[in-house]
């Protein structure tokens, strides 16, 4: 006779509190490994001592693969294996405290119980629960000693993303939403849809206790390349058939959209979207994770630690060669130990889900130990050379003559790449600079020694490189210097004022012919459209410095600006009898401000009014105005408000109601979009 189905009490509230999983919105028990949880069940008429439990995960559970465990009731908790300790027993109801080992595979488990009375009949199922990584437990690979750090990097659903360029950093809020409806299930589906799982499900599941393995697999699954993953990248500046990457404000919509469409890639992502979604997934599974922005980030496609940029005689930036320098690039750091490399390489590990280069035949990147990157240990797993180049590559600027194919070095720059590396502070909405954790001080002997060490390990020291400039070319000294000065903030919708400053460094007069262009670009500095060009010819007296004001009208750039609000201004100066001088500057235009006011005190389950005010920065009417509002624990899902067209320079004010569901500091995210300029984002901390 089959045993009668026992009824199970999972003690959801108490277990969740002890395991830091109270924020999950599921009816299923969610616990962390290496820590005890309580379960009570009835339907057994046996002396408790004879009960056997079976916990198993994945399609082919086995003891060998550590995806199945059978254990009886014991008097003490085992550190190495699954165990159960009796809490109480009375009239057929049994309460036990079950513990998993700190290296158990994470995922959904089935728990069943077998008692001798049921004889050879199959074990009685108690139900399912989900097991996650445990950064609060010292035995776990992801153990993070600081409590505030665990709160930020695992439990915090709000993030700040840094963007713009090295001259002007801007930031915007993001809703990670790792505890929102169905997100945990979607994260588990991601694992089951990975290439590794499709090729060999049993082996894949047996490796799921290892954060190195999961981080690498998920860095591949967040992009759609190779595996029909979550997001399709698009850096064309044209986003038909999907959403402009800059219009997303959170991961929940993206992950839920992926599932709703039958797991077809969501269109479209760019680096910060890939990194934000990977943050959501890793925090959800319990791996401490944060987003990091690198300004002037190198994409070194040919692993020679050098990035080549080409300009024609007119000063136009040419798309030649696969190398590029992005105004900024966003990746992730996750915190775990590196048993494969040794304890000195544990701590923050770089993961990058943006599909830039293949690694092991698929678009994935990391984990690369941040310490290994700083020390130039580029031979260590995984993908250290690529990450090392992102923050350290040398930059070469060439003049390229398309008709003859001749290239001439204009200048080389060893300190340009990898600046102001930024992440959000723990417990505060501030920027923290982590550049010194990636490299020694720029220009110091130590930094140059590490660069040489990395070159040597990559075998670049000994082999002749015909594409490299000659030492003579590198040593050339220019006769003049130049720079673009920006006198004040540059706003979307306004004419842009810049100053080109040219200085004669020599004691004799110099004649200069400067060809100037301005292009709208993506944040990857990919040129989109020319918006302005001009030229000046001037003779500079000995040691003279001259200023040339430049004005670019709104009407010149209005139609060509991408959602990145970025323009690259270039002056290629041909100096009589000397080498050419390239002057360039990347400009990020400031979006207009949005003002958010909470009118009154925010209290749980009480309505409160919010007013959002916005002034049209342009002199023409803007149409298709939509206000999107979201914020976990403040409102459910995303509120969309269609607004009437806004006349030139007109102010608009919108009111809506929130009903907070939880106390504490919460973040409200607002996104205003229209037909004339890029989405404008703002966030406000609301104390409930």
UniProtKB/TrEMBL annotation:
Family matches, as SUPFAM superfamilies: Cysteine proteinases, E set domains, Transglutaminase, two C-terminal domains
PROSITE patterns linked: TRANSGLUTAMINASES (PS00547)
Ranges where the record places region Disordered: 1-22
GO MF entries: metal ion binding; protein-glutamine gamma-glutamyltransferase activity
Cofactors (names): Ca(2+)
InterPro entries: Ig-like_fold, Ig_E-set, Papain-like_cys_pep_sf, Transglutaminase, Transglutaminase-like, Transglutaminase-like_sf, Transglutaminase_animal, Transglutaminase_AS
Cofactor binding annotation: Binds 1 Ca(2+) ion per subunit.
Gene3D superfamilies, A to Z: Immunoglobulins (2.60.40.10), Transglutaminase-like (3.90.260.10)
Domain Transglutaminase-like: 263-355
Matching SMART domains: TGc (SM00460)
Family to which the UniProt record says this protein belongs: Belongs to the transglutaminase superfamily. Transglutaminase family.
Biased composition annotated in UniProt, kind: Basic and acidic residues: 11-22
Full protein name: protein-glutamine gamma-glutamyltransferase
Keywords linked to the UniProt accession: Acyltransferase, Calcium, Metal-binding, Transferase
Pfam family, any one: Transglut_N
Domain of life from the UniProt record: Eukaryota
EC number(s) on file: 2.3.2.13
Catalytic reaction annotation: L-glutaminyl-[protein] + L-lysyl-[protein] = [protein]-L-lysyl-N(6)-5-L-glutamyl-[protein] + NH4(+)
Feature: compositional bias, Polar residues: 1-10
Active site: 271, 329, 352
Positions of Ca(2+) binding: 392, 394, 442, 447
């Amino acid at each position: 006779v089959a045993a009668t189905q026992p009824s199970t009490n999972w003690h959801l509230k108490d277990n969740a509190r002890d395991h830091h999983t109270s924020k999950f919105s599921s009816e299923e028990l969610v616990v962390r490994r290496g820590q005890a949880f309580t379960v009570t069940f009835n339907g057994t008429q046996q002396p408790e001592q004879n009960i056997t439990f079976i916990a198993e995960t994945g399609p082919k559970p086995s003891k060998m693969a550590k995806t199945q465990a059978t254990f009886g009731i014991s008097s003490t908790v085992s550190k190495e294996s699954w165990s159960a300790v009796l809490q109480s027993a009375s009239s057929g109801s049994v309460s036990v405290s079950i513990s998993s080992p700190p290296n158990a595979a994470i995922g959904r488990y089935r728990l069943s119980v077998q008692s001798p009375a049921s004889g050879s009949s199959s074990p009685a199922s108690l139900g399912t629960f989900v097991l996650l990584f445990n950064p609060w437990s010292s035995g776990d690979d992801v153990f993070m000693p600081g409590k505030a750090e665990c709160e930020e990097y695992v439990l915090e659903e709000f993030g700040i993303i840094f963007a713009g360029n090295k001259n002007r950093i801007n930031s915007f809020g993001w809703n990670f939403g790792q505890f929102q409806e169905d997100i945990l299930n979607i994260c588990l589906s991601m694992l089951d849809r990975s290439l590794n799982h499709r090729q060999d499900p049993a082996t894949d599941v047996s490796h799921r206790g290892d954060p190195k393995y999961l981080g690498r697999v998920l860095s591949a699954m967040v992009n759609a390349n190779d595996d029909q993953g979550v997001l399709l990248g698009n850096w064309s500046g044209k986003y038909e058939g999907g959403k402009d990457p800059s219009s997303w404000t959170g991961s929940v919509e993206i992950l839920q959209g992926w599932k709703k469409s039958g797991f077809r890639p969501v269109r479209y992502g760019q680096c910060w979207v890939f990194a934000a979604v990977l943050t959501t997934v890793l925090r959800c599974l319990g791996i401490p994770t944060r987003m990091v922005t690198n300004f002037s980030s190198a994409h070194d496609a040919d692993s020679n630690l050098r990035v080549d940029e080409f300009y024609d005689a007119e000063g136009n930036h040419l798309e030649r060669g696969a190398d590029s320098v992005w105004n900024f690039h966003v990746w992730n750091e996750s915190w775990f130990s590196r048993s494969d490399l040794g304890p000195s390489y544990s701590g923050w590990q770089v993961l990058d889900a943006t599909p830039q280069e293949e690694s092991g035949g698929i678009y994935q990147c990391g984990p690369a130990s941040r310490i290994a990157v700083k020390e130039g240990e580029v031979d260590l797993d995984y993908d250290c050379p690529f990450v090392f180049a992102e923050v350290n590559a040398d930059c070469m600027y060439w003049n390229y003559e398309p008709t003859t194919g001749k290239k001439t070095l204009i200048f080389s720059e060893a300190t340009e790449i990898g600046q102001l590396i930024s992440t959000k502070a723990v417990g505060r909405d501030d920027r923290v600079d982590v550049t010194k954790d990636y490299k020694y001080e720029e220009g110091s002997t130590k930094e140059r020694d590490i660069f040489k060490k990395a070159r040597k390990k990559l075998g670049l020291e000994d082999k002749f490189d015909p594409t490299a400039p000659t030492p003579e070319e590198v040593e050339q000294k220019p006769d003049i210097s130049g720079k673009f000065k920006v006198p004040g903030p540059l706003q979307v919708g306004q004419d842009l004022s810049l100053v080109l400053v040219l200085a004669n460094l020599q004691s004799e007069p110099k004649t200069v012919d400067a060809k100037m262009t301005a292009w709208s670009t993506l944040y990857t500095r990919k040129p989109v459209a020319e918006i302005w060009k001009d030229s000046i010819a001037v003779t500079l007296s000995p040691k003279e410095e001259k200023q040339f004001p430049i004005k670019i009208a709104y009407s010149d750039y209005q139609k060509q600006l991408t959602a990145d609000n970025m323009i690259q201004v270039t002056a290629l100066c041909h100096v009589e009898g000397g080498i050419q001088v390239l002057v360039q500057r990347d400009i990020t235009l400031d979006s207009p401000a949005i003002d958010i006011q909470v009118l009154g005190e925010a209290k749980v389950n009480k309505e409160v009014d919010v007013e959002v005010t916005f002034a049209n920065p342009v002199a023409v009417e803007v149409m298709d105005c939509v206000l999107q509002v979201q914020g976990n624990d403040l409102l459910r899902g995303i509120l969309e408000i269609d607004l009437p067209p806004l006349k030139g320079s007109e102010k608009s004010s919108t009111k809506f109601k929130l009903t907070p569901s939880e106390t504490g500091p919460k973040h409200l995210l607002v996104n205003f979009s229209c037909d004339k300029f890029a989405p404008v984002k703002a966030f406000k901390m609301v104390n409930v």
